[in-house]
Amino acid sequence: MKNELLKIGPFTVYGYGLMIAVGILAAYFTGERRAKKRGLPYEHVFNLVVWCVLGGFLGAKILYWITEWKSIVTNPGFLGDTLTDGFVVFGGIIGGILTAYVYCRIKNLDFLRFFDTLMPSVALAQGFGRIGCLLAGCCYGKETNSAFSITFHDSGFAPNGVALIPTQIYSSILDFIHYGILLFILKKQKKDGETAAAYLIFYSAGRFVLEFFRGDLARGSVGALSTSQFISLFTFVAGIVLLLVFSENARDGKTKRDMSA
């Protein structure tokens, strides 16, 4: 795959950046449309997307630096050298969610309803983002003898000339499927927060499994698990806990209404 798609004078259009931009736009347009259908103040979706993107990139960068703390201690200049590369997706998810929460609190918006409404679009954006990974050659898989493989010839990340498991393709497909599942859950949900909790559960489980096929082992590890697998355990549990809390709150609310009837 080739990351440099087009050159116009001194400007270069990179596949990774283009797919990130497509993902953000797709998240915005689908999220705004969904907010309208659910009767939410959709005029806030644009600002939410912008702030969540900024918060997400900041969170992804901070978590990356945390995982690379040994490199920073050895060479403080590592911080400046990695300003434009090196991000951890889970940090982006956490940063984006926290930013959305703060924004909703400041604007006095119903965070849970926006949380449910926009999380499917996050999965959609991630699907496009993984296509960008495929074009750039990052987030690559292990070497394989399988017929279904991918070989890079001009990548600055993946080993070139070697057949690899196409983890980027698998990830992208799963993200798009995740998007469809979350839309179905949102349509059927009976309590606020259910779709958002489902996002955390499904994404964490899928990411945990896919990590076994990743070949970029330099990303760090915690014991026998990769850093992302280790974080997945906590986000998976967090999703389960949130689902139980939201269910309990819904039952409490129903009980109080029944008693007052």
TrEMBL record:
It is a multi-pass membrane protein. InterPro entries: Lgt. Keywords: Cell membrane, Glycosyltransferase, Membrane, Transferase, Transmembrane, Transmembrane helix. Pathway: Protein modification; lipoprotein biosynthesis (diacylglyceryl transfer). Its main location: membrane. One of its GO terms (molecular function) is glycosyltransferase activity. The chain crosses the membrane at residues 12-30, 42-66, 86-104, 196-215, 227-247. It is an enzyme of class 2 (transferase). It comes from the Bacteria. Its EC number is 2.5.1.145. It is found in: Cell membrane. A 1,2-diacyl-sn-glycero-3-phospho-(1'-sn-glycerol) binds at residue 130. Catalyzes the transfer of the diacylglyceryl group from phosphatidylglycerol to the sulfhydryl group of the N-terminal cysteine of a prolipoprotein, the first step in the formation of mature lipoproteins. Belongs to the Lgt family. This is Phosphatidylglycerol--prolipoprotein diacylglyceryl transferase. It comes from Blautia acetigignens. The gene is lgt.
